[in-house]
Amino acid sequence: MLEHILVIARKEVLDSTRDVRSLLSSLLYCLMGPGIVFMISLTMNAKPAGRSVLIGMMSIFTLVSAFTGGMNVSMDVVAGERERRSLLPLLMNAVARRDVLLGKWLAISFFSMAGLIVTLAGFSFVLAEGTHFPLMLASGLIPLALLAAALELGISTACRTVKEAHTYLSMLTFVPMMVGMFLVFHPKAAAGWAHFLPIAGQQWQLERWANGGGMPLGIPLVQALVLAVLTAAAAACAVLAAANVMERDDVVYGNG
User: Quick check: 16 and 111 in contact, CB under 8 A?
Assistant: First the structure.
């Protein structure tokens, strides 16, 4: 089973890397945040209030990059194959539908994590605060990339065409953006139990680490681990939901 999953994931990754236009589009999306923050930082005189604004923007763009990194890939892995009528021949192989979806999810997760890494690397240069970014990636952001990939896979599975998938996936990227902007303007809303919620918890960690509050002084290790586990559990539930959708005959045999 694991061998089939890895083979499918490898095939999807290789196929996606051949689409240069899609890769450039994802790269521009991921570098847009650091570019905007850099231009805004040039207009500020390193004031504490100004840095707070830059960190707030950094957290929002980083959250969004987890979704934009794999968006172009996700719209093609299921919805695109349905539209090209290549999904049914794929499922006729001696591979469980669940394994097919898991392989595609791993491929989307690869690009989601790559988007996060590119964005964090850009911010480490712009904000000159790269010390805590590996900690951010290791605790809450990798599970967030897995969750973003799972949600995008579910949308692609439910959609019949690439155009339809593109519409809904573009709307999905507004979720971390709206949550992030709300928490920037209303930081007290993220207090207490909200620190354990996906997206809200990751933004809180991003801002604490960017302000120099790395472990163990800034964020308790247990709290970071709980957030990572809860986010990974949400990702698993989203993948399971996508697998249940794939079991429906109208999804597999329906017209594209």
Answer: yes
Q: Residue 222 corresponds to which tokens in the numbers above?
A: 């247990």
SS3 (DSSP) at 217 = coil
Q: What is the DSSP string of 118-159?
A: HHHHHHHHHSS--SSHHHHIIIIIHHHHHHHHHHHHHHHHH-
Confidence of residue 236 (pLDDT cuts 50, 70, 90): very high
128 or 166: which leads in pLDDT: 166
203 vs 36: CA distance, rounded Å: 18
DSSP string, 165-183: HHHHHHHHTHHHHHHHHHH
Tally the C-alpha atoms within 13 A of residue 244's C-alpha that lie toward its C-beta.
6
| pLDDT bucket at 210, cuts 50 / 70 / 90 | confident
Tell which residue, 36, 27, 38, 126, has the closest CA to residue 70: 27
Residue 124 structure tokens: 């480490």
Q: Are 205 and 227 in contact (CB under 8 A)?
A: yes
Q: Which of 40, 63, 58 is nearest to 50 (CA)?
A: 40
Contact residues for 128 (Cβ-Cβ < 8 A; gap 6+)? none
From CA 117, how far away is CA 102, in angstroms rounded? 22
Q: Does the pTM exceed 0.85?
A: yes
Rounded CA-CA distance 236/229 in Å is 10
Helix axes 48-68, 174-185, angle to 10 degrees: 160
Tell me how far apart the alpha carbons of residues 133 and 102 are, in angstroms, rounded to a whole number: 28
> What are the percentages of helix, strand and coil residues in the chain, rounded to 5?
80, 0, 20
